Amino acid sequence: MNNIEQQKKSFNIKILLEIAIVFLTILSIKYLADYFNLIGAGSIAIWCGIIVSTVLMKQKKLKWKEFGFQFPIGIKNWLINILIAIGIVTLVFSIMGFIVKPTLESFGLTNPADVADRFAFFMGKPLVFIVYLITVVWFGAALGEELLFRGYLLNRLIDFTGNNKLGIIIALIIHTIIFGMLHIYQGLAGVIATGCIALIFGSVYFIIKRKLFPIIIAHGIINSLSLIGLYLNDGVIS
Predict the structure, then answer these.
(1) What burial class does residue 7 get, using C-beta atoms within 10 Å of its C-beta: 0-12 exposed, 13-18 middle, 19+ buried?
(2) Tens digit of pLDDT for each residue in 17-44?
(3) CA-CA distance, 214 to 143, in Å (whole number)?
């Protein structure tokens, strides 16, 4: 094995170790947060993962801006980002509603009956519900998950698989599986559904030249609409 091959192997091992450290942190914090019945346990774990990944990025002099996280500047750019986000929302709801959900149901795959129980604490409490939307849905899930999964994870996986068409496809698939498996509490149907959403978000991320902000907005809108529907339906998943 020549020096170039050794350096590449060493580089790949470091990438895998970094990813492992980040996700072991997430799983450990999630376990502890669940043990103490903390609200927004997943979001707490995600942000701990973001802190660890930020430290690892700084060692390589990387910034989140390089992964596509940058606030729009000017009204025109804001409007463009919002329009792209609306397009993403429409795409996700169309694919999930007309393709994924019917396919899962045809195989008898549905979410466990107790999935909605984790949201029972804010039912009939509009103020608690609004606070949850802002802190957990938008800050925790929309911002946190996009930074970590589409920003950090996808780009680090591409460093491992190669920044070419095949490498991007492989990275997309791996990140889709990881994202889906982290939602295993939703049953097999939930794992597949969230995996499909991750695949859509990840694909769009590359289509729009690795810009995170429109996907963050879209993620927040999708989760908000889903939870608002759940809230207005008294906690019953329709």
Answers:
(1) exposed
(2) 999 999 999 999 999 999 999 999 999 9
(3) 11
Place of tokens 């009956």: 113
**pTM of the complete model:** 0.94
DSSP letter, residue 210: S
The sign of the CA dihedral 155, 18, 47, 115 is positive
Q: Is 132 within 8 Å of 210 (Cβ atoms)?
A: no
Whole-number Å distance between alpha carbons of 31 and 122: 22
CA distances from 195 to 51, 92, 99, 119, 132 (A): 24, 12, 14, 22, 24
pLDDT tens digits along 135-168: 999 999 999 999 999 999 999 999 999 999 999 9
8 A C-beta contact, residue 216 and residue 206 = no
Buried/exposed 188-209: b ≥16 CB within 10 Å, e otherwise: ebbbbbbbbbbbbbbebbbebe
- Give the span between the Cα atoms of 138 and 142, in whole angstroms: 5
CA–CA distances in Å: residue 125 to residues 13, 18, 29, 53, 130:
49, 41, 28, 35, 9
What distances in angstroms separate CA 73 from CA 79, 213, 215, one per listed residue? 10, 12, 17
Q: What share of residues in the chain are helix, strand, coil (percent, to 5)?
A: 80, 0, 20
CB atoms within 10 A of CB 169: 13
Range 157-162 contact pairs with CB under 8 angstroms and sequence separation of 24 or more? 157/15, 157/19, 159/11, 159/15, 160/12, 160/15, 160/16
